[in-house]
Amino acid sequence: MAKRILLTSFEIWLSDQQSNSSDDLLLEVLKVDLLPHDLKFLRRLPVDVDLASLQVIQKISELQPDYIICYGMAASRTKLSLEAVASCKESVLHPVVELEKLVTGATAIEISYDCGKFVCEGLYYSVLNYLCQNQLATPCIFVHVPVLNSENLPGILADFLLIINNLALS
Length: 170
Hints:
- This protein is an alpha/beta fold.
- It has one domain: 3-Layer(aba) Sandwich (Aminopeptidase), CATH 3.40.630.
- It contains 5 helices and 8 strands; from the N terminus they run βαβαββββαβαβα.
- The strands form 2 sheets. The protein has a 6-stranded mixed beta sheet, sandwiched between helices.
- The longest helix is centred in the last third of the chain and has 17 residues, at about 155-170.
- The model has no long low-confidence stretch (mean pLDDT about 95).
């Protein structure tokens, strides 16, 4: 049976941005129709922790996905970054996934311990906290996506699809 995977992305947040690389990557995934998974997309979340968290939590409740992958743009990075922690004040949460297993076979992925202090970390923390508070064993990860271009897109897309497949096998 196909694994149901919820994938989220953000809207642009600066007036000079043409797009958000997290959403650009999901658009590329939509073009790949050979994946044996039931992919569900929640695209272009508002760049607001409370609003984005509410929308994702509502979608989790509605879909009851097997896995959740949230994406955000990290313009200063050059590789996909799997986030190992999310914090809020003194509280730190970790995904219930062995991130090292997800990157097996990848060419340009790093495991990051700095989710940033922007909406990305707020959303990641909110989703992990919701899953924990509701005793849901649904694995959730957050992936930061660098700015995409014609040179890096093929490798990033391949690594991204590898993450999805490895997660579905975990």
